[in-house]
Amino acid sequence: MTAKHQPPGPAASPSEALRLVAVSLDALFALVSGIVVGTASAVAQAGHDVAQLQPASAAFWGVALGTALAVSFANHVVLTTVTRASLGKAVAGLRVVRSSDGGRARFIRLLGRWLFGYYWLIVFVPLHLATDSDVEQQDAVGLCTVRRTVRA
């Protein structure tokens, strides 16, 4: 087995701080994208008349939420399929690999991981906050996040 195909060991595991940086950057990117597109949509619907903007309207938030989800999907699934990292993970020096052998993550598993992230956000984050537990997010669907190695 070459070093390229060795499963990641404990030394390759990123710290919780690095994981938090990556998650925060990815979330910020999706949220800002959603708000920008939602605002642009509201301006277009108001006929470029700023006085008629309705940021509390369902249309604004629908466009903003839809855009944020689409950007999140593109970042976490499509971009990670191609580059092995979302934007936040790339900035933090992390990448997503298969847990079994450290190989490239595939589209279907990345889709499952993305969906699991929303399940985690909806179910476990509120439980963690309510109980002040020490539970940390676990990797899912046979994929894990590791520190990116620099090749000589």
Secondary-structure element pattern, one letter each:
HHHEHE
Q: For the residues shown, what is the average pLDDT?
A: 82
From the alpha carbons, calculate the radius of gyration and give it in angstroms: 18 Å
Strand tally: 2
- The unreliable regions are 1-8
Lateral arrangement of strands in the main beta sheet:
1-2
Q: Portion of residues in helices?
A: 55-70%
Main sheet overview: 2 strands, antiparallel
Short summary:
The chain has 152 residues and is mainly alpha-helical.
Task: Describe the model.
Pfam families: RDD (PF06271). Keywords: Membrane, Transmembrane, Transmembrane helix. By secondary structure, the chain is mainly α. The protein has one domain. It is 57% helix and 7% strand. The chain has helices spanning 16-45, 58-83, 87-92, 107-131; strands at residues 94-98, 143-147. The chain has a two-stranded antiparallel ribbon with strand order 1-2. The two termini are 19 Å apart.
Outline the secondary-structure elements.
Blueprint: H1 16-45, H2 58-83, H3 87-92, E1 94-98, H4 107-131, E2 143-147
Antiparallel strand pairs: 1-2
Helix pairs in contact: 1-2, 2-4
Features:
single chain; 152 residues; mainly alpha; two-stranded antiparallel sheet
